[in-house]
Write the C-alpha cells for this entry.
Amino acid sequence: EPYRRQRQMCIRDRLTSDAPIQAVADGTVLAVYYHASIHGYTILIQHARGFVSSYSHLGTPLVVNGDAVNGGQPIAYPANPDSRASRWMQLRLWHNATPLVPYSFL
C-alpha cells in the first residue's frame, strides 16, 4: 500500500513483485543515473506541457538518455530485495520546475 499524505510531495510505494516500474505518461528520458546514497537508479522523464517525472530507488534500468517512452511502458526493474534500497520506489512530479503532489495528477 502506498504511503499517502495530502501534502506529500512524492509517492513512496513498497513493491511486492518483480513487475517493472512503468512510465506515468508519454515522454523523453532526460537522465538515467545510479545514486550511491540511495543504492539505486533514478530516471527522469520529460513530458508534454512542462511536466517532469522522477522515479528513484530502482534496479536495472530498461531505458537510456534520449529514449522516447509511452505511458505504461516499463522503464526499470525494482531494486534487488537484498540491496539496501529495499523493495520500494519513489515517484516525484514537477511542472515548470515546481514540485507537485503526485496524487493530484495520477
User: Anything to note?
Assistant: The first strand starts at residue 11 and ends at 14. DSSP finds no helices and nine strands in the chain. The chain has a mean pLDDT of 83. The beta strands are 11-14, 21-22, 27-35, 40-46, 51-61, 68-69, 74-78, 88-95, 98-100.
